[in-house]
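Worked example 4.2. Below are the chains of a multi-component assembly; read each line carefully before continuing.
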Amino acid sequence: MPIKSLTKDLDRIAQPTMADIVEIRLREFLKKKAFKPGDPLPKELDLAESLGVSRNVVREALSRLRMLGMVSTKKKVGMILTRPDVLGSFERVLDPLIIDQSTLQDLFELRLTLEMGLADLLYLRKTKQGIDELEKIAKTQKVTGERHTFRIKNEIAFHGKLYQLTGNETLQRFQNMLLPVFGYIVKLEKRLLIGKVSHLELVHLLRNGSKEDFRQGMLAHLQHHFDQLK
Amino acid sequence: MPIKSLTKDLDRIAQPTMADIVEIRLREFLKKKAFKPGDPLPKELDLAESLGVSRNVVREALSRLRMLGMVSTKKKVGMILTRPDVLGSFERVLDPLIIDQSTLQDLFELRLTLEMGLADLLYLRKTKQGIDELEKIAKTQKVTGERHTFRIKNEIAFHGKLYQLTGNETLQRFQNMLLPVFGYIVKLEKRLLIGKVSHLELVHLLRNGSKEDFRQGMLAHLQHHFDQLK
DNA sequence: ATATTTGTTATGTAGTACATAAGTACTAAA
DNA sequence: TTTAGTACTTATGTACTACATAACAAATAT
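Applying the procedure described above to all four chains together yields the following structure tokens:
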């Protein structure tokens, strides 16, 4: 095999830069010292000197940690350790346009998996008031002949509310982030949004049916998505 | 209310730095121009000049994108857009020690939700060979009186294999990342790892039972975790 | 035609300089 | 003595310069 075609497929090993190394070293440092949120960190120049690199490099590494919300800085005061937003970093790269097809498909399935697993949390935490609010959303969709964009908005609102009923804020945010992916796949495959079981029927099941009833309803609601899977 | 106690709870609004702004501008730029993976990006100095900031600031912003895997650079050649690893960024902040308790709890529930939703994908993709391999793992656990660390390792192996059977690599990686969180919570609450339904029974259900059988088995397996939820 | 050398260029790193914000200590006035 | 105001100090934020290094390109030699 000629070298030319090899270099096309095999990327040269990217050697880590100083900033990469410093980032890792800083992470280790934070872990080792068991810093807690709010704890002050050494100042940039001290870090640079200790690590034997320029302040520039330290700042590039710190810039990354700042982006993730792991540290925050104030002039004069210095840096303190902060709690990162676990989903914030995820959000930054969740763009359907730059994610490869197979990962998009994986994320699509992940959301379906979540949806099918919701029942247990829902039946643990559902309240009459919550179901009423969910029903309200479902009812606004009942009118036939709605415009497509509205249907999508309503679809998002309904499922968003459903996740909200689980009382799990992270879960709710997570599914919200997956929405663009979901929308992208559905649009790509020109699928119909409307399942065999309507939102209103799901609400009814959630209010009056058993956990298994609801899960079966959800499966029917999503069946045309599952049908596409291989 | 005195100001002193206010400043304790309310952090001063952190004004964005140039690096923050440039990061956003670069993201917008990439999106607007519809760059695809592999496309070359302008060089640092050009970016700096266009944005009216120093090369330093541009590099701090680029360092962030590099960390996320959105761009990669080679000397002389310049920068190209690359596909970020969607879970890579997530991994960076998923440290049980710095995540607050309520988010940890949310992630714990998220994993339970996934686990309960696995059945549909599993029954779509399970193979005899896969189940055989799963059984092999389950059998190594059968010996009673195993040491605790081994039990945990086996638990991880079993559920990891289970996710692998879904054929969804992202899902598998995702659950793998959630493991430390799961372990942390379980350890924290001094729960028993052993559920009412053993791994071997789950394998049996997966092989011979219906989808609903398996899901009920999984619920029983995880019941003592669900019992802790409020 | 192939191998070697040389030149060019964009990134990687170091270092200096200064603006800015935010504490701290000191001074002056009530 | 207390309070208000001022000057000082310091760590981060930003800009700029300089040079090393890797990788490509072109020119030259074999």
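Take a moment to check your reading of the output against the notes. Chain B touches chain A through 65 residues (CB under 8 Å). Residues 1-9 of chain B have pLDDT under 50 and may be disordered.
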